Amino acid sequence: MNRNSKRYILKLLFIAFIVINAGIITPIYIRTVKYNDGGDSAAAGENKKPVSLSILTTTTTTIQVVSNHNDVSFWNYGIDLETLPKPRSTLNISVLLTELKQSYVIIAACAHNEARNIEGLQSVVNMITHYFGRYTVLLGESDSKDNTLEKLRRWALNDTASNVHLFALGNLTAVEKNITSRTMRIAHCRNTLLNAARTEFELSKSQYFFVCDPSQASDLSVFTRENFLSNFMYDRNEWAAFTATQTYDYYDIWPLRSKLVNHDALDMVNRYKANWTFWPAWDNFVTPYKRPIPLDYPHLIEVNSAFGGAAIYQSKYLKSCNYSGWLVDKEVSEHVPFHECIKNISGGGARIFINPKFQTATDWKD
Ligand SMILES: *[C@@H]1O[C@H](CO)[C@@H](O)[C@H](O)[C@H]1NC(C)=O
Ligand SMILES: *[C@@H]1O[C@H](CO)[C@@H](O)[C@H](O)[C@H]1NC(C)=O
Ligand SMILES: *[C@@H]1O[C@H](CO)[C@@H](O)[C@H](O)[C@H]1NC(C)=O
Ligand SMILES: *[C@@H]1O[C@H](CO)[C@@H](O)[C@H](O)[C@H]1NC(C)=O
Ligand SMILES: *[C@@H]1O[C@H](CO)[C@@H](O)[C@H](O)[C@H]1NC(C)=O
Ligand SMILES: *[C@@H]1O[C@H](CO)[C@@H](O)[C@H](O)[C@H]1NC(C)=O
Ligand SMILES: *[C@@H]1O[C@H](CO)[C@@H](O)[C@H](O)[C@H]1NC(C)=O
């Protein structure tokens, strides 16, 4: 049992204790604690956590905080069932496989110190490319201290169809390149692959662009064929991107922007950790949203942004948008500006969903 699950069980016991003793089960999950001080919490200024069920209002934005001992998470909050795409009722597997065989997919993966996950990623990528009539795999690497680069090189050389291309970006932290921010390095790598797809590998002729991280897309026992194929159960006119999820928890809160998490959760942790220390801040702004999405959760989850280690895009939405890991004066999850741009240029027509069946990994692995 790892530290997180111990903490979680202790919390559950504690909550059970309170519920049993007080005889209460909170009927309303979210209530408002108003403060308006230009961005920082008055409650936090008093050096204590605000009550856990709260909506914190700042001058610029409304930040909603739920406790992690109730039934609300971002994925079952404020859903509008009427507008959600439904799986195509007429679809059968042979029709689906034929559609994919007529399609071109471009796969992009950036790796940094991921040597232990490269063979796994390769088998996942092989599982995927097998379904498509045409494929290109773009691999990016930078700054690794292990043999990630060597393994990627071997993979690229060993692809008999020569459809695997490696972009060795070197040492981006080195003085000449001077990209000291981690998210800026990742954004640089993702942009390199995306722009190569545009200029060298006919992105405009592809139907799908699949982005994946080695740490989250390298375990075929979790990331099964069924999970991958679940993305194609929906009419292509109804989605721009499907993003992945995990079995153990929903780990990727940083790139998430939804009705409930409509702000940068890690930025909130950074702002409040000085007063609350790190874990209480984390438990307010991140933990409540990590509760896993059940594999059989029956709806797509519409978001403004999400990632989760893998995402499939329809290429037609990617003509001009780029990643960016820096916003004004701090790091931002590079997926957020990318998704904002995709939604902006489509005039709101590009819809992004977390697909509960698109499970790719058990838990965050470094
Ligand atoms: C932390 O506490 C100090 C002093 O009590 C206060 O000035 C500051 O605004 C607080 N910071 C946050 C993020 O609440
Ligand atoms: C799938 O659908 C196609 C076209 O509607 C039909 O020709 C085919 O027989 C169906 N296959 C199965 C296994 O139901
Ligand atoms: C190279 O490809 C061959 C044949 O497909 C395979 O048996 C071998 O394991 C591959 N080697 C690497 C390093 O991927
Ligand atoms: C990359 O650059 C950093 C900073 O200059 C340096 O400490 C590190 O050794 C370099 N790594 C490699 C693999 O060259
Ligand atoms: C590296 O970039 C930072 C800001 O991004 C700058 O402050 C610093 O002077 C740069 N260092 C070098 C050696 O160029
Ligand atoms: C994205 O990057 C490409 C290549 O650098 C550039 O041509 C394009 O204008 C950028 N798109 C936006 C929206 O900035
Ligand atoms: C998207 O549009 C909004 C509103 O026009 C604008 O403020 C924002 O900068 C745009 N974002 C991107 C990434 O294009």
Attribute tags:
binds 2-acetamido-2-deoxy-beta-D-glucopyranose; Spore Coat Polysaccharide Biosynthesis Protein SpsA, Chain A; alpha/beta; 366 residues; 8-stranded mixed β-sheet; globular; 10 helices; two-stranded antiparallel sheet
Describe the protein in words.
It comes from Didymodactylos carnosus. This is Alpha-1,3-mannosyltransferase CMT1. The chain crosses the membrane at residues 12-30. Keywords: Membrane, Transmembrane, Transmembrane helix. This protein is of the alpha/beta class and 366 residues long. The protein has a domain at 93-253 and 290-361: Alpha-Beta Complex (Spore Coat Polysaccharide Biosynthesis Protein SpsA, Chain A), CATH 3.90.550.10. It is built from 10 helices and 12 strands. The protein has helices spanning 3-22, 42-45, 93-101, 118-129, 148-158, 182-199, 225-229, 265-276, 278-285, 335-345; strands at 54-57, 62-65, 104-111, 134-141, 164-168, 208-212, 241-246, 301-303, 310-314, 326-327, 330-331, 352-361. Strand 4 (134-141), helix 5 and strand 5 form a beta-alpha-beta unit. The model is unreliable at 13-60 (pLDDT under 50). The structure holds 2-acetamido-2-deoxy-beta-D-glucopyranose (7 copies). One 2-acetamido-2-deoxy-beta-D-glucopyranose binds at residues 40-41, 44-45, 47, 271-272, 274-275. One 2-acetamido-2-deoxy-beta-D-glucopyranose (NAG) binds next to loops.
